[in-house]
Amino acid sequence: MALAMDRGELAEFLDEAFPQVKGDFAIDALDEDELVVRLKVEERHLRPGGTVSGPNMFALADVGIYIAILARIGRVALAVTTNASMDFMRKPAAGADLIAKIRVLKLGRVLAVGDALIYSEGDDRPVARASMTYSIPPRAMG
User: Fold this and answer.
1) Mean per-residue pLDDT for 75-95?
2) pLDDT tens digits, residue range 8-67?
3) What is the helix (H) or strand (E) element at residue 75, kind and residue range?
4) Of 47, 43, 51, 57, nearest to 94 (Cα)?
5) What is the 3-state composition of the chain as percent helix, strand, coil, each rounded to the nearest 5?
6) pLDDT in tens, 98-111
7) How far is it, in rounded angstroms, from Cα 103 to Cα 89?
8) Keyword set for this entry (predicted)?
9) CA–CA separation, 79 vs 25, rounded Å?
10) What are the φ and ψ backbone dihedral angles of 67, each rounded to 5 degrees?
11) What are residue 27's DSSP bridge partners?
12) Contact, 61 vs 118, CB < 8 A?
């Protein structure tokens, strides 16, 4: 499937639609098979014990799968998460960005399913895995 939005358009949309996360995420790569998105880890993303917090890893997966879907369907701000499952496998490094490799597994008219594998930059062992389903709102008839 051809992409409806490129990296620049996705980054611009994310900044416009979700200014509360502006600057937190960067899109490293995008093609028909995979999106690679990064959480630029700062002190505020850490929890006691010197590791990236679970909510920040969840946000990376959620934002990553969301924009991977939008890359395929275009600007649909009201696509929403309807189901999420996350497995935390090992402690991420505090001094490294988190990298999520995102795949859209199914893209239908109403539902989309995506998968994220999250890594600490520089380590090829995943720290977390997420599977999420999104509801895609009906397109306005025109």
Assistant:
1) 91
2) 999 999 999 888 888 899 999 999 999 999 999 987 887 888 889 899 999 999 999 999
3) none
4) 51
5) 25, 40, 35
6) 999 999 999 999 99
7) 19
8) Hydrolase
9) 19
10) -75, -25
11) 37
12) yes
